[in-house]
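Sequence in, structure out. Go.
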Amino acid sequence: SFPSFETLKYINQNDTINIKTDAIKTHQKHIRGFQLIDEYMKRDYNIPTKDENYVYVSHLLQAKGIVMGIEAQRRAKPYSMGTLFWQLNDCWPAISWSSIDYFGNWKALQYKAKKAFENVLVTSVVKENMIDTYIVNDSFENIKGDLHIKYINFNGKTLWSDTLEVDVKPNSSEQYYNLSLGDFQKDNLVFISEFNGKYSTLYLDKPKNLQLKKAAIKKTITKSKNGFTIELQSTTLQKDLFLFTNEKGFFSDNYFDLLPNKKVIIEFKTAAKTLDDLRFKTLNTI
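Output:
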């Protein structure tokens, strides 16, 4: 994927995002790199016309592919005992496989891989018109709790739900629920599974086919000891919400799905005294 906006500006030596310059081309070391990004993006996403949005979607594309592999191999435990992915960071500014760019900025992959590698993982997959929901427990402790599963539409209406009490064995991966896809409208639907505060989302269609709606994202920003606390909420599902600013700092989470009518609190660690230029990107608006 492409590096962060900050790194792209550094490569081009100006404040614009332009991925068609000779400087950018020089920093692509894979002979088919641009071609592969474009091919895979066209398969799963609507290809943006603006360079800034193209860079953002390239991050989502990279994260989607790697996280699918991580979760599949964790579900296959003990046949597969985990994943190492290439690569962590860049030693120079480049279009690359890295999850952290040259300046230390986390791409979507780093945020999403962090969640995919948590000791307790709730993960669902579609197989033969069925949704199989697994809980992977990499700890050495027995864990009891309720598995909550539901279909909601992008406005937050619950279309179907169920709860199952489960006893998760130590160091295990097991399927705990098997559900038919049903006759729901798949391009306006998200399947959510939650266990002991951990949850995952599963979409039943490609991102480019989802009927995402446009709506405002309400934000409340307050000064905190180490930076700023950001509270976010929307009346519709905001797919792959990306927060960015010109201020130097680190977001506690990013590139996440903001579920409808659900408050999310993000911490932005920074030495900046103000945060007046906080901006968003989502698949809903590009």
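Check: The CA atoms of residues 42 and 81 lie 32 Å apart. DSSP finds five helices and 14 strands in the chain.
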